[in-house]
Design a protein that fits this description.
single chain, about 325 residues, mainly alpha, globular, disordered C terminus
């Protein structure tokens, strides 16, 4: 990988890691469902008028928009609002690699194999350690909401694998067009019009900056750059950079939000990242019949498959094998 592209991959991982801190800032200004709606609204408009709709069936755009935008980010934002620390959230979301592998095995006939099963067991051990630590220091319900967000992310990864969009940026822009309306409706129902109006009326530069960062920097730039890298390099070369996301997430949360990193947090991080690494390495040796399993970042599984879609179309059997690796890497939150 060229040095400039190496630096770009690290930059994307840093953006997706720091994004969890920015989400925490945004949640101080907005109710979580409204904040998520604004994130996707700003990401979609006016970009949707500047990029062509991806050449996939509309049902896949809608399905991924609901799974990724409404379920995954809605649950993540609510969990963080309810007390889940930003740094720990960036780590726990990595368990989506396990959910993706399980869902892909159940629906796409993927063979897991011993190495992947071992990696999944190690990753789940990390989640158990994190759960014990969070249960002792914070609300366990918030932790479970983030785990549920990871499961929703796994669903969206499998749906994206089925859709096989040819371009990462246009795919993300059009997927972003789906969540705002259902999220606004849910916000009005559960958070209330009064809370939403109060948040919008009191909007300041900090809140506006948080919305713009999560929409334009983490979503559009992050997905676009990740897709750019995946069009030029094998997924096995790009995917490992996604493992830096929780490193940047936990470090930035410690520096900017004064979130401490406890011994259980460090152990959970080692187990979870180690387990995801095993799953990723196993995927790198996957066969052409094995579907994708995402891995780790603020919003990445969808992007990886999307970013390699156009290359896959022209490379025959090699593309099928690459497609299996693509969704593995990973964003967010």
């Amino acid at each position: 990988m060229r040095p400039v592209h190496f630096a770009l991959a690290v930059l994307v991982a840093a953006v997706w890691g720091v994004n969890f801190v920015v989400i925490e800032v945004g949640l101080r200004h907005f109710p979580p469902l409204l904040f998520s709606a604004l994130r996707f609204l700003v990401a979609a408009l006016p970009a949707v008028f500047l990029v062509r709709r991806p050449r996939v069936a509309l049902r896949w755009i809608v399905a991924v928009g609901l799974a990724l935008g409404v379920a995954k980010f809605g649950l993540l934002f609510i969990g963080m609002r309810e007390g889940m620390p930003a740094g720990l959230s960036s780590l726990v979301l990595q368990v989506q690699a396990v959910f993706t592998a399980v869902f892909a095995a159940a629906t796409l006939g993927e063979r897991l194999g011993r190495v992947r099963l071992t990696g999944m067991a190690v990753a789940l051990a990390g989640i158990a350690v994190a759960a014990v630590g969070q249960g002792a220091s914070g609300p366990l319900g918030a932790f479970l909401l983030v785990v549920a967000a990871a499961a929703a992310w796994g669903v969206s990864n499998v749906l994206t694998r089925k859709a096989a969009p040819p371009d990462a940026l246009s795919w993300m822009v059009w997927v972003s067009l789906v969540p705002p309306l259902p999220l606004i409706v849910l916000s009005l129902l559960f958070e209330g019009p009064a809370a939403d109006l109060a948040a919008l009326r009191s909007l300041d530069l900090s809140g506006l900056g948080a919305v713009c960062f999560v929409a334009w920097v983490a979503t559009l730039f992050g997905f676009g750059a990740w897709g750019f890298l995946l069009r030029r390099y094998d997924a096995s070369a790009v995917a490992p950079f996604s493992l830096l996301v929780p490193v940047f997430g936990m470090t930035s949360a410690a520096l900017l939000l004064d979130e401490g990193i406890t011994a259980p947090d460090a152990l959970a991080a080692a187990l979870l990242i180690g387990g995801v690494t095993l799953v990723s390495l196993a995927r790198g040796r996957g066969t052409a019949t094995e579907p994708a399993a995402d891995a780790a970042a603020e919003p990445t599984g969808a992007v990886q498959r999307a970013g390699t879609g156009s290359r896959a179309a022209g490379t025959g059997s090699r593309a099928a094998g690459t497609g299996s690796q693509t969704a593995r890497a990973g964003s967010r939150g």
